[in-house]
Specification:
single chain, about 250 residues, alpha/beta, Rossmann fold, 2 domains, five-stranded parallel β-sheet, 5 strands
Length: about 250
């Protein structure tokens, strides 16, 4: 059975207000980072999609990438995905202030590389600075970088994200990360480190209330109300026992 996306966002007004405020601040040159955390399937990605749509409607430059579960993590996987998406849309890192980083970026995006780039310096600092400058390129009112499932991210990606977060405050850029917080991970460790030095904020996505779940079902089915028996079943399935968040 195909998954169904509710046509309207239910029960997330507070979370969307917080994300909107973050995008507003980025548009005013006050960049930041926000970690959207919670249980698997609780709705983190849906909030990310809403933030992407809002940023796009404002003309922001948007990059998106996702970490994936793998026995052997692929270095830079979510960032490479984000940059490849930029390349597919016709972006070329040849503007002033960014062109000096083209050789480093070319190690991740082949079509940006040129002969002789093999000796380019590659480090989390170089990549992080290049990414920050790309998101701040002239012509856009702001930039949004969305990195999903960072609990599966490789160490190289996390090092770049940490540099980006530490240097984002004066840029018109928002970095939005989605992250499971129900089990230990290096991504969760990064969140704790960032929070400790107040370099980013956290939005913890709670499970929807039974009433909100019923409203969502009605919206998906395009009906005014769902039968009471269905409502009771949805309530039981949406509130099973859960373990506490990882510390």
């Amino acid at each position: 059975m195909e998954s169904m996306l509710c046509p309207v966002l239910i029960g997330r007004s507070a979370e969307m207000r917080a994300l909107t405020e973050q995008l507003d601040a980025a548009g005013q040159g006050k960049g930041g980072a926000v970690f959207v955390t919670g249980d698997p399937g609780v709705g983190k990605s849906r909030l990310a999609r809403e933030a992407i749509a809002l940023a796009a409607s404002r003309g922001y430059f948007v990059l998106t990438g996702r970490a994936t579960e793998s026995a052997v993590p692929v270095p830079f996987r979510p960032l490479t995905e984000a940059l490849m998406g930029a390349a597919r849309s016709g972006v070329v890192p040849d503007v002033p202030g960014l062109s000096d980083y083209r050789a480093a970026l070319g190690t991740l995006v082949p079509e940006w590389s040129r002969p002789g780039d093999g000796d380019a310096e590659v480090s989390p600092v170089i990549f992080g600075e290049a990414l920050l400058r790309m998101l701040s390129m002239p012509g856009w009112p702001g930039g949004l970088l969305v990195l999903e499932d960072l609990h599966w991210a490789d160490p190289e990606t996390l090092a770049i994200v940490e540099y980006l977060i530490d240097n984002i405050a004066s840029a018109s850029v928002l970095c939005l990360v989605t992250l499971r917080d129900t089990a230990p991970s290096a991504g969760l460790d990064l969140l704790h480190s960032v929070s400790a030095r107040r370099a980013g904020t956290r939005i913890r996505v709670q499970r929807l209330t039974p009433r909100a779940v019923t409203q969502m079902a009605a919206a998906c089915l395009e009906i005014a109300d769902v039968p009471r028996s269905v409502s009771r079943l949805l309530s039981r399935r949406s509130w099973p026992p859960r373990s506490p968040p990882a510390s």
